[in-house]
Every structure is written in structure tokens, then in C-alpha cells.
Amino acid sequence: xxxxxxxxxxxxxxxxxxxxxxxxxxxxxxxxxxxxxxxxxxxxxxxxxxxxxxxxxxxxxxxxxxxxxxxxxxxxxxxxxxxxxxxxxxxxxxxxxxxxxxxxxxxxxxxxxxxxxxxxxxxxxxxxxxxxxxxxxxxxxxxxxxxxxxxxxxxxxxxxxxxxxxxxxxxxxxxxxxxxxxxxxxxxxxxxxxxxxxxxxxxxxxxxxxxxxxxxxxxxxxxxxxxxxxxxxxxxxxxxxxxxxxxxxxxxxxxxxxxxxxxxxxxxxxxxxxxxxxxxxxxxxxxxxxxxxxxxxxxxxxxxxxxxxxxxxxxxxxxxxxxxxxxxxxxxxxxxxxxxxxxxxxxxxxxxxxxxxxxxxxxxxxxxxxxxxxxxxxxxxxxxxxxxxxxxxxxxxxxxxxxxxxxxxxxxxxxxxxxxxxxxxxxxxxxxxxxxxxxxxxxxxxxxxxxxxxxxxxxxxxxxx
Length: 465
What we know:
Blueprint: H1 2-17, E1 27-28, E2 35-44, H2 50-67, H3 71-76, E3 79-86, E4 89-95, H4 98-105, E5 110-121, E6 124-125, H5 130-136, E7 162-167, E8 181-186, H6 203-212, E9 223-228, E10 235-237, H7 238-251, E11 257-261, E12 263-266, H8 269-280, E13 284-288, E14 299-300, E15 308-313, E16 331-334, E17 338-341, E18 349-353, H9 355-373, H10 378-387, H11 402-405, E19 421-422, E20 428-429, E21 433-435, E22 442-444, H12 448-451
Parallel strand pairs: 1-5, 7-9, 7-11, 8-9, 11-13, 13-15, 15-16
Antiparallel strand pairs: 2-4, 2-5, 3-4, 5-10, 5-12, 6-18, 12-14, 17-18, 19-20, 21-22
Helix pairs in contact: 2-4, 6-9, 7-8
């Protein structure tokens, strides 16, 4: 017996030194772009008890310490760093060497392990407030004099509702916010409260201004809370974003709280499951569809179902060239040449374009709706906004719902380059076959499940004109 134990211990030591490389069959998103080296998100199986989770994490911490004996290597793989516990989603994340990851995978409690990856804002750099006019009027057309007006009920305007802006932070002292914005929590670098009230990038401030600014915002009486998950370069990690989502659920009020996430990345299973978990906890999440000009099934969390996913529209009522598109984009909102608050002083503004701007308008609409109707479930808000959207005005849809247009992807011309197809408004999508980052399978983008059915819906303020 002693001999057998010695042999087993020897094999364990050899495992530390000659760790088998990880493969994409073991790790979701391992070969996706923008993965963070040696960083992983570990998701527990449904029903795993808190005691089993605590025991597992303790064991992994010990294993990692033994495995990473070299000090420099230990610094590169910090071990368990963050834990998550939301309805239907329990997980942890951290930096691990391959031997520790193999040990994690062997646990009977683990559902899957996913490579952590970089998450970014969804803005296109690019003057005017046509967007508020568009969402408050059924019949809209470009005004050559740039004379637009926003029709709304000032007695409602999001009163008593809070929107959590999970982003780069918010310049809470900006005059647009009239003291209604506050610092929630900063998860970038050393976690703190104050840091979320600063914004080195400007993206979060711009989005907050569209949600609830006094001049540029939809819901002009809403409360805004900055949850900072993206750093000074406008990017962050999936695990940090999930931290921000969890903090919001812990601190917000179901039925009267909205999450605006104008960010995205490659389709990640953990990210999407966390977003759906937030909805189960009673929090509506509004998502940017993404700016890659491609089918929506490949971006996360915008590819999650049963959430409000928003694409961008230009002033001619055309889907913006950069906007992602497809059946999981619930509706479109103004997203080209949109003016809002900026960060260099308390009065500065800037014009930006992106699905981030479109999503922010819809988050403002959701706040407006709840402010007028009282606490609502995410499903109630989603149904009201999507059913009340303006239809019949999106111009030049090369791809649309076959039931409405008779057009299918199979009838569209294929580029003579031999590896592209035509997207909305003539944009090229670069390959007929792509790898689904979630399943690892090659998927033809002509698959109707992925790409048919652009929804002819433009966000509309039900209290508009």
C-alpha cells in the first residue's frame, strides 16, 4: 500500500512538471480572438451545493499553490480571484496553470471551463440630436434644417427608476446629470467605490447622457449608477463584467432597475448565462448588438435570447453599415452621429456612432416606461417595447424576414471573391463558413437559424407624438 501511494504521488509531481496542453475540446473559447492568457471562468453544474462549491474552491487553491512553485510563474497565474453567485449561475474565475485547469476539469461539480477574454465598448468614432426626434415620432424624416424635437411627458421621464451603466465609469459631476448620477462600484484595478465616478474613456458618460441626461437623454428624471468594469483603454475581461452584473443584482431593486451594457465580445457561454441569470433575478438588461456588421449569433451577450438587443439606425432609417443584424436583434434605434455628454469638463459634449448609442436610447425608453407604469418584470418591459415599436420604416433591407419580404439569404448574390456574402446595405460578410466559438463547429452563415429575419422595428417612446 505504501508503495502504491508513493507511485501515485510521483505521478502527481510529474503531472505538475509535464502538464498536458489544454485543448479546445476541454476549454470553451480557447482559440477565440482576444483571449487572456492563463485566465479562465469556471462554471458549476446546476444544483451544486454551496458547501460543495466552497470545498472545491479550497481544494483548487491548495492544488494551484503546490502546482505553481516557481514565484514568477505564480505571479502570472494568481489562482482563484473572483466568485459569482446569481440565480442559475455559480462560478469563479482566476489565473491558472494548465495542470490546475486539468484538475478543475476533473471535478464532478464543474459544468464547463471557458477562457476569459477581452470585452470592449461598442462605439464607432465619428453632429446632432436627431435621435430623440426619431424615437418620439412614428413618422420621421430627415430635416434639412436640423430642426428636431423630442416629445415626452416631463412628469414621468424615469422618475423612481435606476439605470446601472456597466461600462467605463461615468463622469458623475457633468451638468447633464443634475446630481442624479452616482458612483456605484469600480472593479478595475483595485476595487473601490469612488473610481466608478470617473471615466477616462468617455464611453460610459456618453451612454449615461443618452439614457438620462437633461438635454440628450430619453428619461430625464432617472437615477444613474456607474458600475466601472472597463479600464482606461476601453476594454476589460469577461469575468470583471460578470462581477459588475452580480454587484448590480445585489444592490438594485428588481422591477425598478435596468442594466445598460453597451459592450460585447465573442460569444461566450458564461457571459450569456450570466446575462440570462440577471433577468431571472428581475433585472432588465439592454444590450448593444455589436459593431462588426455581421450576423448577431456570434457576439455575447447580444446573442443571448430573451433580452433586449439593439442595433443601430442612421438618419435615413437604414441599418448602420457597422451594426450587427439578424433575428436576435430585437429592434433598432438611432446610432449614427449621436451627441451626448463627454468627460473633459462638466459641460463638454461629443458626437459618436455605434450600437452603444442605440442601446442607451432603449435603456432610457425602458426607464421611461417603468417610471410611468410602476415596477415591471423584464418580460413585461420587453413585450411593451418590442410590440410598441415603429414598423414599416426601415429602408433598404437586403435581408429580411421571408414572411414579410420573400427574400432569403439563399437568393442573395455571393461575392466573386468566393468567400463572402452580402449583408444589410451591401456590406460584405467575409466567409460563408465560420467557427461557432461556443460549440467549436463550423457553421454556414446562410443557416436561416442564424441570419434570417431582420426585424422591422424601430424603438419608439409610447408617450411620443
